[in-house]
Design goal:
The complex is a heterodimer of chains A (about 325) and B (about 375).
Chain A: E1 2-4, H1 5-19, E2 23-27, H2 43-47, E3 52-54, H3 59-70, E4 75-79, H4 90-97, H5 100-103, E5 113-118, H6 133-137, E6 143-145, H7 150-162, E7 167-172, E8 179-181, E9 195-198, E10 203-207, H8 211-224, E11 229-233, E12 236-238, H9 242-252, E13 255-262, H10 267-279, E14 288-292, H11 303-306, H12 310-318
Parallel strand pairs in A: 2-3, 2-4, 4-5, 5-7, 6-7, 10-11, 10-13, 13-14
Antiparallel strand pairs in A: 1-8, 6-12, 9-11
Helix pairs in contact in A: 1-7, 3-4, 8-12, 9-10
Chain B: H1 52-77, H2 91-99, E1 106-108, H3 114-119, H4 124-127, H5 129-132, H6 141-144, H7 157-169, E2 176-181, H8 188-199, E3 204-210, E4 213-214, E5 217-218, E6 238-243, H9 247-262, E7 268-273, H10 292-299, H11 303-313, H12 319-339, H13 350-353, H14 361-375
Parallel strand pairs in B: 1-2, 2-3, 3-7, 6-7
Antiparallel strand pairs in B: 4-5
Classes of the chains: A alpha/beta (about 325), B alpha/beta (about 375).
């Protein structure tokens, strides 16, 4: 049947709550309203206000409450309404959620999920389009997951809720309405497994979350020009699947990392570094990146210039030293 | 216009209580004057004197706690502890907090509350692990019902709320008591925790030990409120003020607060007026921000001296009892000294062992690299 990513996430929550009484859903507007993106639609009606409930409007309090409840037998799933509105909770996440198991030598684990709608592409006004994954991925103790397909949305969220460790579950807002033919429930590859979404032989595009459909579109366009691009969907940023990424790049000999977030010190930089460390002797060109510019996320009118698009990806692929000509952009003296 | 009553009221929230029932008393509750003599009858309001048996236990634990505290401070000077934030002078709050709890209740302490850990019966070497620097939390929080000592101020307060709310949801009568200082009341998490506790009617007691200083910054720079206890009223949390150097008052008010929370009365905020007699830590220089006279004045209101005078005046504490308490404290301190005489060893494999339930492939790899580096 045709399912949107939003409905798949909703189904994952519902099925998890049906199977396990300890699973709770709470946050801002997740009750009667069903969440501003309707991901929690109908959960309060089915499970009652004890299982899916609204809280005061305070993100540190929401995450802190979840920590305490996870310490005492529950498996909370909390919703941060938007990426940038999760920042008040960052101290709770970095100092407690991520560290509790380690600081107590394993005595207290925190099986909890922090759902974060993130990234742009929906014309959101200021503070509604941040790609904040690097903050979490840079914090040991968290798992960071971001589905790009409808089936993954369901399966990865179920796995996140079942996981003994805290998971930051990043949901690309522009993909909430993405549709696919999926029969639920569905189980896809587990955490720590990247998936080759499209096979190719000339270069590898490594992408995650909102960048995956763009990378696939670029690969389709490149095929028309006779260039065969492989697309790897990371799915989970932590744990990271070095093996799949490296195997692909060793096979193709060229790599472009595509990410919507700003590039400097971002997850894309980490990926490029890991590929370079592992695949140096297989590479015909430096690893290049297509990312958002290093600017605060722009207003809706300018959004199209910020988001990595097909043309920018193809232009970057063109600079992968196909005729042994160095990339002019990074030659000595070029800037 | 919509009235409060017309809003749907979720099952997890209680009706808003009247403001009058929430306000703290004009003066801190006290049973004793500064010398341990009886305070006027109206100074302790509706609260009853705690039973003698409880006061005797409190006396022994406070004497032991103070000796432990002095020993820990001495160990910093010998380099056996990395740092130690003393709670000397706050024995009534440190010990009162744990004596008000049942074994099944949870304590959420800060870095200044190692004395409370000792009062809870936690092994002193395990309790000092954090400050010794050999690991972060050295005791088992689940077995001891004591959360790890929290360093980022007030961030443990929402955890206490969550844990207590979870207990209530599970039909358990567990209460969580969270320790906070005056500086911590300026942090956002303190306010969010009070608000969440009230909205979800969680069985939590917030004990603010107002010891006058946040490192060097005096209370006057933390708040312009009539008292820290007044901060509860705005959230619908019943609030009390107590003389934090009067062990009778602290025990009476905290026991009442804990049992009220247990009985479904919702959260309670207690402000204990006390004083940090020692510098912030051994690394602090308090001569830069406060007068010696101020410290001496507070030392004259010493909680142990006051309790001792009170119990002696009633014939409930003999010279032999005092000697026995001191002797037990000396034995305890000697044991701590002996057991901390070695340099702690750290196992480098511990770095990777508990980051996740199962280490990621990257952590396994890094553990191997470190092992190889050490084998060279």
């Amino acid at each position: 049947m045709t399912v949107t990513m939003g409905k798949a996430l909703n189904a994952a929550l519902r099925d998890a709550m049906r199977e396990d009484d300890s699973v709770l859903m709470f946050g801002e507007d997740v009750g009667a309203l069903g969440g501003v993106f309707r991901v929690t639609d109908g959960l309060t009606a089915e499970f009652g206000d004890d299982r899916c409930f609204d809280t005061p409007l305070a993100e540190a309090g929401i995450v802190g409450l979840a920590v305490g409840m996870a310490m005492n037998g529950f498996r909370p799933v909390v919703e941060m309404q938007f990426d940038a509105f999760a920042y008040p909770a960052f101290e709770q996440i970095a100092s407690h959620v991520a560290k509790m198991r380690n600081r107590t030598r394993g005595a207290i684990g925190l099986p909890m999920v922090i759902r974060v709608p993130y990234a742009g592409g929906i014309g959101g006004v200021e503070h509604h389009s941040d790609s904040s994954e690097a903050y979490y991925a840079h914090t040991p103790g968290l798992k960071v997951v971001t589905p790009a397909t409808v089936a993954d949305a369901y399966s990865l969220l179920r796995e996140a809720i079942a996981d003994p460790d805290p998971v930051v579950f990043m949901e690309a807002k522009k993909l909430y309405w993405a549709k696919d033919e999926v029969t639920l429930p569905v189980t896809t590859e587990p955490f720590g497994t990247a998936v080759v979404r499209r096979e190719g032989s000339d270069a590898t595009l490594v992408a995650y979350g909102p960048a995956v459909p763009v990378a696939l579109e670029a690969a389709e366009a490149a095929a028309a020009d006779g260039r065969s691009l492989e697309v790897v969907d990371l799915r989970t940023l932590v744990p990271f699947d070095d093996a799949t990424v490296a195997a692909s790049v060793r096979r193709t000999g060229r790599c472009v990392v595509v990410a919507e977030a700003t590039g400097f010190a971002g997850v894309s930089a980490e990926i490029a570094a890991r590929v370079q460390e592992r695949c140096f002797h297989s590479l015909w060109a430096p690893v290049l990146r297509v990312t958002g510019w290093d600017v605060p996320f722009p207003p809706p009118v300018l959004e199209k210039y910020q988001l990595p698009g097909v043309d920018r990806i193809l232009d970057t692929v063109d600079r992968l030293q196909w005729d042994d000509v160095p990339d002019p952009r990074f030659l000595a003296g070029s800037r | 216009m919509t009235t409060q009553a017309e809003h749907r009221m979720p099952a997890t929230t209680a009706a808003a209580p009247a403001e009058a029932g929430l306000l703290p008393s004009a003066e801190p509750v006290r049973f004793l004057d500064d010398d341990g003599g009886p305070a006027p009858d109206d100074a302790h309001g509706r609260f009853e004197r705690p039973p003698t048996e409880l006061l005797r236990r409190a006396y022994d634990a406070m004497v032991l706690g103070r000796r432990f505290d002095a020993q820990a401070t001495a160990l910093t000077k010998q380099g056996r502890l990395a740092v130690y934030p003393s709670s000397r002078g706050q024995e009534a709050g440190e010990i009162g907090a744990v004596l008000a709890l049942r074994e099944t209740d949870w304590l959420f302490p800060t870095y200044r509350d190692t004395m409370s850990l000792i009062g809870r019966g936690i092994d002193p070497v395990e309790a000092l692990t954090l400050l010794r620097g050999s690991w972060h939390c050295g005791y088992d929080p689940v077995a001891t019902r004591t959360a790890p000592q929290c360093t980022p101020l007030a961030t443990h307060a929402p955890h206490a709320v969550g844990l207590a709310y979870a207990a209530r949801r599970r039909g358990e009568d567990t209460v969580a008591l969270v320790l906070i200082g005056d500086g911590g009341t300026s942090e956002g998490d303190f306010h969010e925790a009070l608000n969440f506790a009230a909205v979800f009617h969680a069985p939590v007691v917030f004990l603010v030990q107002n010891n006058g200083y946040a490192i060097s910054v005096p209370l006057s720079r933390q708040t312009a409120a009539p008292s820290l206890a007044h901060k509860g009223v705005g959230y619908g949390v019943r609030s009390e003020r107590v003389d934090g150097n009067d062990p009778l008052a602290v025990l009476a008010v905290l026991t009442d607060a804990v049992e009220s929370a247990r009985a479904g009365g919702g959260p309670v905020l207690v402000e204990a007026h006390t004083y940090r007699v020692e510098p912030h830590t051994n690394a602090d220089d308090d001569g830069r921000y406060r007068d010696h006279d101020e410290v001496e004045a507070w030392k004259r209101r010493d909680p142990i001296t006051r309790l001792e005078a009170h119990l002696r005046s009633r014939g409930e504490l003999t010279d032999d009892d005092v000697s026995a308490a001191r002797e037990a404290a000396e034995t305890f301190a000697a044991d701590v000294r002996a057991r901390l005489s070695d340099e702690p060893a750290g196992d480098p494999a511990d770095l990777f062992a508990h980051v996740y339930a199962e280490p990621t492939p990257q952590l396994r790899e890094q553990a191997t690299w470190l092992a190889e580096e050490l084998a060279r």
